[in-house]
Amino acid sequence: MKDQPGDSDFFRDVYDVVRLIPYGRVSSYGAIARYLGAARSSRMVGWAMNASHGLLPPVPAHRVVNRIGVLSGRHHFSDESEMQRLLESEGVKVENYQVADFETLFWNPNVELVPD
DNA sequence: CGATTGACGTACG
DNA sequence: TCGTACGCCAATC
Predict the structure, then answer these.
(1) Gap from A43 CA to C10 C1', Å
(2) Model pLDDT, residue A37
(3) Cβ atoms within 10 Å, residue A79
(4) Which of A24, A35, A76, A77 could form an SS bridge with A82, CB 3.0 to 4.6 Å?
Protein backbone atom coordinates (compact mmCIF):
# COMPACT_ATOMS: atom_id res chain seq x y z
CA MET A 1 0.00 0.00 0.00
CA LYS A 2 3.01 2.21 0.28
CA ASP A 3 4.66 1.10 -2.88
CA GLN A 4 2.64 3.68 -4.71
CA PRO A 5 4.56 6.37 -6.60
CA GLY A 6 4.93 9.70 -4.91
CA ASP A 7 5.42 8.33 -1.45
CA SER A 8 8.16 10.87 -0.89
CA ASP A 9 7.59 13.80 1.43
CA PHE A 10 7.92 16.14 -1.49
CA PHE A 11 4.96 14.60 -3.28
CA ARG A 12 2.80 14.57 -0.18
CA ASP A 13 3.75 18.16 0.41
CA VAL A 14 2.61 19.02 -3.09
CA TYR A 15 -0.74 17.36 -2.47
CA ASP A 16 -1.11 19.24 0.79
CA VAL A 17 -0.52 22.60 -0.85
CA VAL A 18 -2.86 21.85 -3.74
CA ARG A 19 -5.61 20.93 -1.29
CA LEU A 20 -5.12 24.34 0.32
CA ILE A 21 -6.06 26.10 -2.89
CA PRO A 22 -9.30 27.96 -2.10
CA TYR A 23 -12.51 27.32 -3.97
CA GLY A 24 -12.70 29.24 -7.20
CA ARG A 25 -8.98 29.95 -7.26
CA VAL A 26 -6.12 28.51 -9.25
CA SER A 27 -2.40 28.11 -8.81
CA SER A 28 0.61 27.18 -10.90
CA TYR A 29 3.14 24.36 -10.77
CA GLY A 30 6.07 26.72 -10.45
CA ALA A 31 4.47 28.60 -7.55
CA ILE A 32 3.89 25.38 -5.65
CA ALA A 33 7.35 24.08 -6.45
CA ARG A 34 8.90 27.32 -5.28
CA TYR A 35 6.87 27.24 -2.10
CA LEU A 36 8.31 23.82 -1.37
CA GLY A 37 11.80 25.14 -1.97
CA ALA A 38 12.17 23.42 -5.30
CA ALA A 39 11.65 26.29 -7.71
CA ARG A 40 13.44 24.37 -10.41
CA SER A 41 11.50 21.18 -9.86
CA SER A 42 8.23 22.41 -11.26
CA ARG A 43 8.09 19.28 -13.38
CA MET A 44 7.96 17.17 -10.26
CA VAL A 45 4.80 18.99 -9.25
CA GLY A 46 3.18 17.98 -12.50
CA TRP A 47 4.44 14.45 -12.01
CA ALA A 48 2.98 14.42 -8.54
CA MET A 49 -0.34 15.50 -9.97
CA ASN A 50 -0.23 12.56 -12.34
CA ALA A 51 0.01 10.29 -9.32
CA SER A 52 -2.64 12.22 -7.41
CA HIS A 53 -5.50 10.43 -9.13
CA GLY A 54 -7.51 8.34 -6.74
CA LEU A 55 -5.85 9.83 -3.67
CA LEU A 56 -7.74 10.57 -0.50
CA PRO A 57 -8.58 13.22 0.27
CA PRO A 58 -8.97 14.09 -3.38
CA VAL A 59 -6.51 16.54 -4.84
CA PRO A 60 -8.05 19.41 -6.85
CA ALA A 61 -5.52 19.07 -9.63
CA HIS A 62 -7.87 20.96 -11.91
CA ARG A 63 -7.02 24.09 -9.92
CA VAL A 64 -3.40 23.78 -10.90
CA VAL A 65 -2.36 25.19 -14.24
CA ASN A 66 0.87 26.38 -15.77
CA ARG A 67 2.29 29.85 -15.33
CA ILE A 68 0.25 31.30 -18.18
CA GLY A 69 -3.07 29.92 -16.98
CA VAL A 70 -3.38 27.21 -19.60
CA LEU A 71 -4.98 23.93 -18.59
CA SER A 72 -1.91 21.99 -19.58
CA GLY A 73 -3.04 18.92 -17.65
CA ARG A 74 -6.49 18.64 -19.18
CA HIS A 75 -5.37 15.67 -21.22
CA HIS A 76 -4.66 13.63 -18.10
CA PHE A 77 -8.23 13.80 -16.83
CA SER A 78 -10.96 11.38 -17.73
CA ASP A 79 -11.97 13.81 -20.43
CA GLU A 80 -10.19 16.88 -21.69
CA SER A 81 -13.28 18.96 -20.99
CA GLU A 82 -13.48 17.59 -17.44
CA MET A 83 -10.84 19.97 -16.11
CA GLN A 84 -12.47 22.99 -17.70
CA ARG A 85 -15.88 21.88 -16.50
CA LEU A 86 -14.64 21.57 -12.93
CA LEU A 87 -13.14 25.04 -13.00
CA GLU A 88 -16.26 26.59 -14.46
CA SER A 89 -18.25 24.72 -11.83
CA GLU A 90 -16.28 26.69 -9.23
CA GLY A 91 -16.91 29.99 -10.92
CA VAL A 92 -13.64 30.12 -12.79
CA LYS A 93 -14.19 31.30 -16.32
CA VAL A 94 -12.24 29.26 -18.82
CA GLU A 95 -11.93 30.10 -22.49
CA ASN A 96 -10.21 27.88 -25.01
CA TYR A 97 -8.64 25.79 -22.23
CA GLN A 98 -7.21 28.93 -20.69
CA VAL A 99 -8.18 30.59 -17.40
CA ALA A 100 -9.66 34.04 -17.84
CA ASP A 101 -8.45 36.69 -15.37
CA PHE A 102 -5.76 34.25 -14.39
CA GLU A 103 -3.78 36.95 -12.60
CA THR A 104 -6.83 37.77 -10.49
CA LEU A 105 -7.71 34.17 -9.66
CA PHE A 106 -4.10 33.16 -9.20
CA TRP A 107 -3.46 31.87 -5.70
CA ASN A 108 0.16 32.21 -4.73
CA PRO A 109 1.07 30.00 -1.72
CA ASN A 110 4.24 32.00 -1.27
CA VAL A 111 2.05 35.00 -0.46
CA GLU A 112 -1.18 33.54 0.90
CA LEU A 113 0.39 30.91 3.13
CA VAL A 114 3.28 33.03 4.32
CA PRO A 115 2.23 35.37 7.15
CA ASP A 116 4.10 38.54 6.50
C1' DC B 1 21.82 0.11 -15.94
C1' DG B 2 21.60 3.93 -19.68
C1' DA B 3 18.48 6.74 -22.39
C1' DT B 4 14.08 9.02 -22.91
C1' DT B 5 9.98 11.35 -21.31
C1' DG B 6 7.24 14.73 -18.84
C1' DA B 7 0.45 18.16 -16.04
C1' DC B 8 7.13 23.46 -16.17
C1' DG B 9 9.98 27.37 -15.90
C1' DT B 10 13.89 30.23 -16.70
C1' DA B 11 17.82 31.75 -19.49
C1' DC B 12 19.70 33.16 -23.63
C1' DG B 13 20.12 34.86 -28.59
C1' DT C 1 9.11 40.36 -28.46
C1' DC C 2 9.52 35.60 -30.00
C1' DG C 3 11.75 31.08 -30.56
C1' DT C 4 15.00 27.72 -28.90
C1' DA C 5 17.92 25.39 -25.34
C1' DC C 6 18.63 23.70 -20.97
C1' DG C 7 17.78 22.24 -16.05
C1' DC C 8 15.24 19.72 -12.60
C1' DC C 9 14.42 14.79 -10.79
C1' DA C 10 11.36 10.87 -10.75
C1' DA C 11 9.31 7.21 -13.54
C1' DT C 12 9.27 4.48 -17.59
C1' DC C 13 11.25 1.94 -21.59
Answers:
(1) 9
(2) 86
(3) 10
(4) A77
